[in-house]
Amino acid sequence: MSTYALSLKDLNKSFGPAKIITDVNLDIEKGERHAIIGPNGAGKSTLFNLISGLYTPTSGSVKLHGEEIAGMAPHLINHRGLSRSFQVSNIFINMTVRENVRCGVLNAMGQGYSWWRNIGSNKEVQSRTYEILERCGLVDKAALPASLLPYADQRALEIAITIAGGADVILLDEPTAGMSHSETDRAVQLIRTATEGKTLIIVEHDMGVIFDLADRISVLVYGEIIACDTPENIRGDAKVREAYLGDEEEPDVKEMV
């Protein structure tokens, strides 16, 4: 069995004549926190969609814990231990916070809501749901309809749903987008706590978040990875500075989006 949580080999994706992802090779170790950054249009969301099964690669390989998942349906990939969030909050707004998380827990247990079964009496489901709510700082909001949550709490709920399935590889797509500075600080702490012991792959535009969370960073430009290294080395990489900022001598990492 591979020691890598996720392994991409010669991965390509084209839409007609447009080549969006070009020969991407990337190995992410178990328990690693890996960030993917790049300018707008670099192909970051397309890469996430290839990994999570929303898109089928034109060619190449995607392996999860050493097993090929390229072209597999998203729900089957999820059952193999990979879960993702999206740029836009993806929650059930007419359900309570608790019910949202409980859906994820039930899915992980191979169950679902049934009108003839009293879900509330299932102690294992209740215990796991409470554990996730507590981990994500949502216990005091558990009975609220998700639609009434502030934006930052809706994003926290989405992270809670993402980890509720029990996946050990978590993909987060711009989890702090649209947040204030204080909300971002809280989100970073939440992500660190909620994904402890798991493999995290994150796309994020806020470089402060990236440098705070990531063990390694991959830089994607026009569908190609031009650098993959530690945050310290990426910060000083001339190719990265040029890709983001042209020939400027002293880039501000906050502008590396």
TrEMBL record:
ABC transporter domain span: 6-247
Keywords: ATP-binding, Nucleotide-binding, Transport
Record's signal peptide: none
One Pfam family here: ABC_tran
UniProt GO molecular function: ATP binding
The keyword Ribonucleoprotein belongs to this UniProt entry's keyword annotation: no
PROSITE patterns (alphabetical): ABC_TRANSPORTER_2
UniProt name for this protein: ABC transporter ATP-binding protein
Lineage of producing organism: Bacteria, Pseudomonadati, Pseudomonadota, Alphaproteobacteria, Rhodobacterales
